[in-house]
Amino acid sequence: MTTRYRLDNGLTVLFEEQHAAKVAAFQVWVRAGSADERPDQAGLAHLHEHMLFKGTATRGPGEIARTVESHGGEINAWTSFDQTVYHIVIASPFARTGLEILGDSVRNPAFDAQELAREIEVVCEEIKRSQDTPSRRSSRELFSTAYRVHPYQRPVIGWEETVRGFTREKMLEFYRRHYTPSNMVLSIVGDLREAEVREWVEAIFGGDWGRPYEGAVVRAREPTLEGRRVHLKEDEAKEAWLNLAFSVPDVLHEDTPALDVLAMIVGQGESSRLSLEVKRKLQLANAVHAWSYTPKDPGLFAVSLTLPPEKLAQALEASARILAEARAAPVSQGELRTVQALIEAENVYQRETVQGLARKLGFYEASGGGLEREARYYEQVAALTVDQLREVAERYLRFDRAIVTGLLPKGTSFTAADVESALDRALSGAQASSGVRAPRPKAPAPMQVTAPLSPKTAEGEVIVEKLPGGATLLIREESAVPLFAMRAVFLGGLRYERSSDNGVSTLLARTITRGTPTRDAEEIAHLIDDLAGSLTASSGRNSVTLRAEFLSRHFHRGFELFTDVLLHPLFAEAEVAREKALLLQDILTRVDKPSGLAFDLFARTLYRQHPYRLPLLGERETVEKLGPEALRTYHRRYMDPTQMVLAVVGDVRASEVIALAKEAFGNRPAPEVTKPEVAPELPPSEPRVTRHALARAQSHLVLGFRAATVMDPWRRALEVMSTVLSGQGGRLFVELRDKRSMAYSVSSFSVEGVDPGYFGVYMGTSPEKVDAAVAGIRTELARLRDERISDDELLRAKRHLVGAHEIGLQRNGARAGLIALEYLYGLGADALERYASEVFAVTARDVQEVAQRVIDFDREALAIVGPGQ
After folding, report:
1. Helix (H, G, I), strand (E, B) or coil at 792
2. How far apart are CA 308 and CA 289, in angstroms?
3. d(CA 360, CA 185)
4. CB within 8 Å of 363: residues ≥ 6 apart
5. What confidence tier does 279 reach under pLDDT thresholds 50, 70, 90?
6. Coil vs helix vs strand at 181
7. Are β-strands 462-466 and 287-293 bridged in parallel, bridged antiparallel, or unpaired?
8. 191: exposed, middle or buried (C-beta count within 10 Å: 0-12, 13-18, 19+)?
């Protein structure tokens, strides 16, 4: 139950106990975002997000992040149009320290002039990064077109010319205006007791802050749109980005719940109308999604698509027709009931993590009309009728006031007149049709297995059950939330591919859920939504995974669907062709994601023969040759249940899980399987450098070395070494970002494999800074190799690793995935429990030795993607 109270100074405090994990989340919601800025202040709210953790009167630059990370915590912030949120997630034994840091940061920021100058450079790098991202460019064009007067027209991050003009005095002006207790909400969730929380909050946040709240900023009101508004722009993206939008009310309006439901029915999830019609049946879009954005002031209802440019007119017409049909005729009762159940289930999923729950509480109190509005929202959703949905669609999906924006690849022939024609055809076509859709198919009845209910096992204990056919079943009962997760993992992935079939495991993962002998793809999509869950597959460098999550009350039906997809994938010709076309489009648009391109280039530079050199998506030439038989062969050879590790974690009974697993997998004959021979590859004998020219605002570089396997005993020391470099308190962040303003994004990483993986550093920076960035990275790596780290750095890194591990494993799915993969790789069922002790056993000497083992500049690989390479 949530407690809400108010301090004498006006600060609103929310608290909810949550003891599933030894973790606590603290969030300060400031009711001020970019929409509270003047035009000359564009980006100022976002710059506060950067500066508040850069030092206070008693804590110097970098000290805040180092302290949080040294106590096993994570610190960050985000800015939106309407609020700025500062948050810390930390191990509960150090909760008071985390709250003290958060309170000091928002109450006593230093706004040091030198730190401000450096951080302005960092934000300008972030702006350049957003300019290189098509999704950001598309969103910017939509909002600047939809809003001509209201401040939602401006990007939250601001513009480089305004950001470079900010001074300490301007920062203080905005801070003193908005950062007052009565304009803030403190949301706390976690493994704490209310009495201690009240005492801490009063001591840290109480008293007079010396600046009374002057009231909310009066924002310019956007005039009612008269007529259509179309803005099409030529762009360097390889695919088109299209938005069809309509003006809708704010978050507190009575129609907001209905708009959310309508967006889910028409365009969220694989069983939505847009996905089934525009993406699957007509194959007009690579991705399509509907959303209802209802912020503090009137927002937008929109359909967003990415698609081949030659299909723009057809895709716009088809998408608009689906919206027009929702205006002309009621949706089905089945569609409405399914979405109502999904929204109810979403409320349960949000309770898996303390930070997720803290965010929901903070949102409702700060922006959503108060905590009471949450219950009211769910009541309104549950009470909706199909006729009410149609009325809302008719009220707001006004085609005479439609907003259309598009980023068009160079040479695309698509004009405002084409937009007008497509919308007119869609509207007339919907009016001529009845709007009646075929009833949704009914799924087969689930398997029925009766098992005696044994007593529940100890919470957190992993039960290992070897099934008769050879599969391994891992079960961990966790009853904190009524959910469960499943992960079936198999050795394979990229490591089992060759140049001739590169991409086969990714195509398989995208197709395996697209039909069985008893269910087609549409039936599976509908059933997943009916069960308010998810069922997907993925392929990595060393394995292939089938994953599912459902409400516990749907355990039997969810398990039956999971096993049907796993054992009997159809790989129908039409489904494979459809997914292959989407995969080929993703391969084509890799250049729109330059950081990912840099990592692909790095892998090809570091490895010359090993399959790890290949891109996960595959190459166009090999994917084009793949067909259903290649997928069936891969599935038959490498995904037989006899080779499987299946982990089930959550609110389940082990006896039921074992009974169902034996029924599904227990007595299958093991096929004769010859695993691919993967020849070892020696590290480079000399430095390797590969450059790829790409006209973008930023360059992206990856510098790294061959490193550990999952079985190497020194991989924990390697993780500690990487953490000394990474994080907001790490050497790379402090030396290259904070002190030298070289980048917005810089991090180190360690990727282990069944065969030797790699360790490296990534940075996105301005082209003119590349040489200095590479030199700076080498300097920091050489320090690790040549000098032993301090005891303080060692403790920070180890606590941060263990704390992040605990924070990251709050969800059932995260625990199931880790347990399954660790067992698959031969590390045992207790690897999760051993993690902390293995990390804390690492010494400074171990870190230096692993640095000397791995960091060898004569065997480095360097990949650079950017202008003039």
Report:
1. helix
2. 16
3. 12
4. 29
5. very high
6. helix
7. unpaired
8. middle
Buried b / exposed e along 10-46 (16+ C-beta atoms within 10 A): ebbbbbbebebbebbbbbbbbbbbbbbbeeebbbbbb
The first and second tokens of residue 163, run together, are 């950001």
How far apart CA 745 and CA 701 sit, in angstroms, is 11
Query: Pick from 716, 786, 711, 698: which is nearest to 756 by CA?
Result: 711
- pLDDT value at position 443? 41
Three-state secondary structure of 599-616: HHHHHHHHCCCCHHHCCC
Structure tokens at 337: 């009931």
pTM (global) more than 0.85: yes
* DSSP code string of 503-567: THHHHHHHHTTSB-SS-BHHHHHHHHHHTT-EEEEEE-SSEEEEEEEEEGGGHHHHHHHHHHHHH
By the 8 A CB rule, do 248 and 302 touch?
no
**For 251, how many CA atoms within 13 A lie in the half-sphere containing its CB?**
15
| 240, 412 contact by CB (below 8 A) | yes
Which of these, 444, 495, 392, lies nearest to 757 by C-alpha position? Answer: 495
Per residue in 774-832, pLDDT tens? 999 999 999 999 999 999 999 999 999 999 999 999 999 999 999 999 999 999 999 88
CA 767 to chain CA mean position, Å? 28
Closest CA to 702 of 610, 595, 856, 851: 595
Q: How far apart are CA 24 and CA 702, in angstroms?
A: 35
Record the tokens describing residue 653, joined without a space: 């009974």
Two structure tokens written together for 40 = 């000359």
Tell me which residue of 537, 504, 715 sits closest to 611, measured CA to CA.
Answer: 504
d(CA 79, CA 46): 6
Q: Which of 748, 701, 697 shows the shortest CA–CA distance to 865? A: 701
Per-residue tokens: 321: 């027709």
Mean pLDDT, rounded, for 580-592:
95
